[in-house]
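Re: adenosine-5'-diphosphate structure - here you go.
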Amino acid sequence: MTVATAQAHPNIALVKYWGKADTAANLPATGSLSMTLDIFPTTTTVRTTDDHADRVVLNGVERDGTVRERVVRFLDHVRGLAGRDDRAEVVSWNTVPSAAGLASSASGFAALAQAASEAYGLHLDTRALSRLARRGSGSAARSIIPRFAVWHAGDDERSFAEPVEAPAIEMVIATVDAGEKAVSSREAMKRTALTSPFYPAWITSTAQTLESALEACRAGDLDRLGRITETNALRMHAVIQGSDPSIRYLTPVSWSIFDAVARLRAEGLRAWATADAGPNVCVICPPEDTAVVAERIGALAEVVVARPGPGSASREPAA
Ligand code: ADP
Ligand code: DP6
Ligand code: CO
C-alpha cells in the first residue's frame, strides 16, 4: 500500500478550450492559454488498497455516479501505465467552488494526476504529467504548469501544456453564484459541437486567436492580450448559446460586471473580463489597477484577487 498527496490550483483561460478532437484521449480541437491561480488549491490524497473497488471522497462526502466514474476511469488509465490493478482510495478537498465555472475540474484532476502517478509508482516528467492530467479534464493539463500556460492541440504525444511568458497581470474574481452549474462543461461542450451552427467558425477563429494572443504575450502587449481575452470569452459564450437546446451560463449579474469593466476602460483603466463555463466573472488587469478594479467590481459581487500561482506539487500526506 502506498500513499501520496498533491496540491494544484485552478487556472482561468484567456483563450478558451471549448471543443474536442478526440474524446477517448481528451484531445482539444484548438490550443488554449491560461493563468494558473495562487488561490483556491485542491489537495488530493491517493492511497492504494487491497479493496475490490475504488473509493472517492470529495469535500468530505463519499461520491458515486459521474464524479466517481470520472475518477475511476482516470485511475484505470494510471493503472494501465503502471501495470498494476490494485484499487485506491481518493480523498480530495477543493477550496474553489466545485462545478461552478471556476475550474475545479482543472485543479481537481491536476492534483489527482500528481498524487495518483506517485502512489502507483510512475515517475513522470512535467510533460507526461500534463498529458496525464489532460485525460481527467482538458483544462487540468494547464494546472500542472505555474503562472501562464499554453496547452497545444495535437495528438496524444503532442497535446500537453507548457509555460509561456505573459505581461504582468492580476485577476479579480467575482463570485456571482458558487452553486453547481446545471450543465457540466463536458456535456455542454458536446452539445455545442453537435448542435451549434457557429461551432465551425468558433474553432477556426479560436485557432487564429491563440496565435494572436501568443504574439501579444511575446510583445508584452497587455492591451492587445486583454482585448483578445474578452472577445474570445464572449465568442465562447455565443457559440454555447447557439446550442440546441440552448445553454446560457452568464446571468444578468455576470453581464453587469462585463458592463462595469467596459466603464472602467472608458475611464482609462486597463481591465478586461472573461468567464469560463459558469456565471462567475474574472477580470484581468495590471497590478497597479487591481485595487480600483476590485473595489468597483466588489460593489456588484463578492471579489477575491488572484495572482499567477504555482504548478502542481507533491505534499506531505496529512497525518
Ligand atoms: P468546473 O467549472 O468547476 O471545472 P466542470 O463541469 O468542468 O466544472 O467539472 C466539474 C466536475 O469535475 C465535478 O462534477 C467532478 O466530476 C470533477 N471534479 C471537481 N473537483 C474534483 C476533485 N477535486 N477531484 C476529482 N474530480 C473533481
Ligand atoms: C470554459 O476542461 O472542464 O473552462 O475536458 O471535458 O473536463 P473537460 O472540460 P473542461 O473545460 C473547460 C472549459 C472552459 C475553458 C477553458 O478552461 O479553457
Ligand atoms: Co472544468
